[in-house]
Write a structure and sequence with these properties.
Layout lengths: L3 E6 L3 H4 L14 H13 L4 E6 L38 E6 L10 H7 L4 E7 L1 H14 L3 E5 L3 E2 L3 H15 L1 E3 L1 H7 L1
Parallel strand pairs: 1-2, 1-4, 2-3, 4-5, 4-6, 5-7
Length: 184
């Protein structure tokens, strides 16, 4: 299967900058693996989708019933972590999302199908929320899903581990980073 894309989920300041609302110290552990995936996908000119949380400033959002306001378009917590984000190349795109899944109410599936993508290497934060929701929807849409274990984590390690087990059992494959790099 040669048509593989990289789906980077929420590599934004909200999780990676100590001054932002959803920061957790272990998030830094995934930065080097994320850089390696991004560099490899760029070198091989793979489709790279940067799925990022973006909410409309000043407007109600159902997600705010569970979480405080966050990631409003233009706010510092919604900006990419240093060194991440689309490069400007035609094969790198941004998909804004207002829910946990990068597929829900976005055109991600349409984009992937138009590019004949069959496999997704998924990476980012948090394993038990946005990563898992996106993987579950990718599986339901018929994509082969690969999740490199070193390129995702959570501020709730026990939930991240349970999510890795579920992903590997029900939705895709959890692999080592080197195996994911080879697939790209």
């Amino acid at each position: 299967m040669s048509n593989t894309a990289l789906l980077m989920i929420d590599v934004i300041n909200s999780f990676f900058s100590p001054d932002e609302p959803h920061y957790y110290p272990r998030s830094a552990d995934v930065l080097d693996p994320l850089r390696r995936l991004l560099r490899t996908a760029r070198e091989r000119q793979r489709l790279i989708v940067h799925a990022v949380e973006r909410h409309r400033p000043g407007l109600a959002d159902f997600e705010y019933k569970k979480l405080p306001r966050h990631c409003a378009t233009g706010s510092s917590d919604a900006e990419y972590a240093a060194g991440f984000g689309p490069s400007g190349a035609h094969h790198e795109v941004e998909i804004g999302k207002r829910r946990y899944s990068a597929f829900y109410a976005t055109d991600l599936d349409l984009l992937l199908r138009e590019q004949d993508v069959e496999r997704l290497v998924v990476a980012g934060v948090k394993t038990n929320v946005c990563v898992r929701a996106s993987i579950q929807d990718a599986f339901a849409a018929g994509y082969e899903v690969v999740l490199p274990r070193q390129a995702t984590n959570s501020n709730y390690p026990h939930l991240a581990e349970a999510s890795l087990e579920d992903v590997n059992r029900y939705f895709g494959r959890v692999v080592d980073l080197d195996d994911a790099l080879e697939l790209l």
